[in-house]
Amino acid sequence: MEVMKDLTALIAAHGIYALSVIFIFYQQRRAYQNLRDASVGHDREYFRRVHVSVIAATYILVFLSTGVWFYATFMYQPVRLIKGEVNGLAKPIDAVDAQAIIKQQLAPERVGDVDFYPVDDVPSLTGEYRFRWVLLARENLRQIAFRFVQESATQAEVHLGPELAGNDPSGPSNRTRKRSYLEKRFVLDLDALHYSPTRAIYLTYKPDQSDPSRVGSLWLSNQDGSIAEVKWIDSVDRNQSKSLAAHLLTTLATTVFAAANASVFNADGSYSAEVARGLLLQLGSGELRTRLNARQLLVQSGSSAFRFIVDVLDRKIVASSGDWALLLDNLSKAVDDIELRGAKFSSDGHFKLAVALYNVSDYRSAALHFDKAPETMARREPPQVAMRAHAYLETERFAEAVSLLNEYVDADVPSKDRAWARNALGWIYARTGRWEEAVKEKREALRLAPGSAQYLNGLAYTYAKQGTNLSEALMMIDRALRASPDDPAFLETRGYILFRMGRLDEALDLIRKASLKLPDDVETQEDLKEVEAAAARLAKRGAPRASKS
After folding, report:
1. How sure is the predictor about 540, in pLDDT bands with cuts at 50, 70 and 90?
2. Cβ neighbours for 492, distance < 8 A, ≥ 6 positions apart
3. Residue pLDDT, tens place only, 319-371
4. For 530-535, what is the mean pLDDT?
5. DSSP output for 206-245
6. Is the pLDDT of residue 244 over 70?
7. Does the pLDDT of residue 155 top 60, yes or no?
8. Do 144 and 190 touch, CB atoms closer than 8 A?
9. In three state form, how does the secondary structure of 313-329 look?
10. What Rg do the C-alpha atoms of the chain give, in angstroms?
11. Do 398 and 428 meet the contact criterion of CB atoms below 8 Å apart?
């Protein structure tokens, strides 16, 4: 019905314009007829002046009315103010702390007929913040698409060799923080909301209680006081519920925007250095809206943007600031979107992007781009094999990781790097329940790097999980702790060994201390639950708990 209503209004407007033009030309024809019929000299002079005046007025009015019609149909956009508020988003005051969530942001996708203005950003001591915004949009805009981005930093085990990330495999710690970016999309239907300027759109974000690092749910407050869940979506039909006039406007805006982008990248991919530095800063901006706009510019430019992307990865373009990890995340998503439109990024380009993403610990994206670089990986060197293996390990593609690690072990690499690969193989085998192979690989890693605190800890923890060789495991972890007495991972391993030996009080104390420093480490939290459950069972039976002997 809405489409028919707008179509009728469009035809009516065009009909009135057409009738006006017909009437003007009819008056011109009558003036010409009178001129031709005049027989007296002074009458002919009079009607000649009338005829010239009508012709001039005709073309001036047609020109002006055509301009008004074009502006009203294709350019004029009556706007309205749309207010909104989101509560419950996370932005911890101390982002260096052990918080899993660094920041959550929300912004509308880039379209030519919406202007977005953040109003305020009010944090609380709990790490949550309220975000208010306003939109200036066309009056007949019925849907607004938003993007929600969550930036996380979680504890993860390190399995890197020294040539990969500068880590010493015999160093004291096997934990680090890796960053990841999750992106979701949702659409607000203004017609269904019965939106009016007298009220705001109130949204509330609720985190996933079982796993706070995952994206939770979003809830909308209705006028009647009820709440409804907003569904995350992967794609949306942009023509759904749009009028013909709105569709024409959107098409025109897209065309104009694409034409504007042509000035950023030439057909051969060349670009202005100054513009490139500005775009680089926008892609790494802390504001989601700015990043989305810059990414959309790359996507609209298509394959012409590939040269710029490769130059960024080669560090040929340098900007004074900007978040490198955020920038790479946006480059990765832009390449994916461009390829969905039919263009193909080079194998070398995918490889360079994979290495860059790997170096900022975005292992999931790195693994996907390694997959898209088969020609380059066919010429792979051992360090490249190790990177890809580690990316697969972190994303739990264990079968592929094992194959690459075995290839790396057989390559001509230093003993300390072979030890890293053996330890990584042992970690995978332990995760998949292949305990005998896990012990074999971890013993070999320790043989290749004697005295490594990391490998001592790994083998000791494997023994503890099996419940075997506990005395040997305790001696190993004590050696590791002498090298790094405050490492929470080592303390947790010692606590779990003591738990297996029946020394529950000591075990519980150590694991609780370690868990406070490793709140995002899954194994530590699972071990804590196991030990606390055992302590609760003993307490319920009233049995004495073993202590240090």
Report:
1. confident
2. 510, 511, 514, 515, 518, 524, 527
3. 766 788 889 999 999 999 999 889 999 999 999 999 999 998 899 999 999 99
4. 90
5. E--SS-TTS--EEEEE-TTS-EEEEPPBS---TTTT--HH
6. no
7. no
8. yes
9. HCCCCCCCCCCHHHHHH
10. 33
11. yes
The single-letter code of the amino acid at 366 is A
DSSP output for 439-494: HHHHHHHHHHSTT-HHHHHHHHHHHHHHT-SHHHHHHHHHHHHHH-TT-HHHHHHH
> CA–CA separation, 535 vs 537, rounded Å?
5
Could you tell me which of 425, 395, 391 has the C-alpha nearest to residue 407?
425
The confidence band for 199, taking pLDDT boundaries of 50, 70 and 90, is: confident
Residue carrying the six token digits 């697969």:
392
Q: Tokens in use for 233?
A: 């979506």
Which residue has tokens 């065009």? 14
pLDDT value at position 356?
A: 93
pLDDT band at 256 (very low <50, low <70, confident <90, very high): very low
* Whole-Å CA distances, 241 to 65, 138, 200, 244: 31, 15, 22, 10
Helices 306-313 & 273-283, crossing angle to 10 degrees?
70
Beta carbons of 178 and 156 less than 8 angstroms apart: yes
Sign, CA torsion 30/32/34/36: negative
Question: Above 60 in pLDDT, residue 160?
Answer: no
Question: Strand 227-230 relative to strand 114-123: parallel, antiparallel, unpaired?
Answer: unpaired
Asked which of 192-196, 302-306, 380-384, 545-549 is least confident by mean pLDDT, the reply is 545-549
Residues 440/446/448/449 CA torsion (nearest 10 deg): 160
Name which of 334, 405, 345 is nearest 371 in CA terms. Answer: 345
User: In terms of C-beta density within 10 A (0-12 exposed, 13-18 middle, 19 or more buried), how is residue 60 classed?
Assistant: exposed
Structure tokens, 304: 């012409």
Higher per-residue pLDDT: 363 or 252: 363
Those residues with Cβ within 8 angstroms of residue 183's Cβ, 6 or more apart along the chain or in another chain: 147, 148, 149, 150, 333
Dihedral over Cα of 55, 56, 59, 64: its sign:
negative
- Model confidence at 168: pLDDT above 60: no
pLDDT at 66 exceeding the cut of 50:
yes
Which residue do the tokens 């639950």 mark? 529
Q: Give 167's pLDDT tier (boundaries 50, 70, 90).
A: very low
List Cα–Cα distances, 157 to 175, 212, 462, 523, in angstroms.
5, 19, 15, 11
Tokens of 426: 């042992």
